[in-house]
Fold this sequence. Notes:
- The chain is α+β, with helices and mostly antiparallel strands and 170 residues long.
- It has one domain: Ribosomal protein L5 (50s Ribosomal Protein L5, Chain: A).
- Helices cover 24% and strands 24% of the residues.
- The chain has 3 helices and 7 strands.
- The strands form 2 sheets. A 5-stranded antiparallel beta sheet has the order 2-3-1-6-5, covered by helices on one side.
Amino acid sequence: MNIMQSVRIEKLTLNFGSGKDQAKLEKGLKLLQAIANRKPMKTITNKRIPTWGVRPGLPIGCKVTLRKAEAKALLKRLMFAKDNKVYARQFDAQGNLSFGIPEYIDIQGARYDPEIGVIGLEACITFEKPGFRIKHRRMMRRKVPLRHQVSREEAIAFMQREFQAQVEEQ
């Protein structure tokens, strides 16, 4: 197998959406801090949606991004919470994987905190191949060719091989 065609984890992003409820947002910040051991950042809305009570500049959620070994270690714990099962529909056409965890106490090593209560979060895993730097570098930036992008089938095979994930059709 060509080394340049091997799939790897680029990043793992944990998201928590609270809407306009600022008390819930504070709980989400504590939750992501406890799970990832990193300070999460608030996500701020740009749109005005009066029916939801959302206006520009209002924090409506938080997220934290992990890369390399930290991402891999946390993904193992998250997959344990999902009983190593994911659905094929959770993979998109570019090979990214997204799934939700209804209760954070299912995550291996997470302890119940009465201040937080029982809430869930979403995990998004972005996969890449060596050479993806060309789309982020400063000079001579290029698009990643279609033949070098991570396909849905390659991402599924990676999850089955590296994390012994059971990918179910439904």
